[in-house]
Amino acid sequence: MSQQLDELLEFHWMMDMLQSVDVGIVVFNRQYQIQVWNGFMESHSGMLPSEVRDKSLFDLFPAIKEDWFKKKSNPVFDLKTRAFMTWEQRPYLFKFPNYRPITGSESFMYQNITLTPLTSATGKVDYVSMMIYDMTDVAVGKKQLEALQVSISEAQERNQSLL
To answer: What are the structural domains of the chain?
Structure first.
């Protein structure tokens, strides 16, 4: 009985951690039906886990191009390999508003996405975990740095032409 209680308590704190991390976690099956939707996703989308569970990712988020996303995720299911999407390739997958006070200059959240196969005890991949990282601070910083480099370069060109 004590071991079962310990396992239940461990499961409880692991679920609490999953819900409270500052990373979006979505688990979907081969039909792209959402199975897990953590607190980050709930907070940024305004959708409760009970509203999205067993619903199609593409029905809930029609802006996600189904063919493109399936090309990215099918190898995760079939080859048991991770896939990555960066904000530099595509600014976001889920168009969430930017709620960051420091980087309030952007209207949406820049995101990096990692797709990870979830292998069952039989070795089969029936589910994929998608982790959504808020990269807005990094994106804003990089854009500001690039703008500064352009300004410096233009100033140097102006100074050269005066000489």
So the answer is: 2-135 (3.30.450.20)
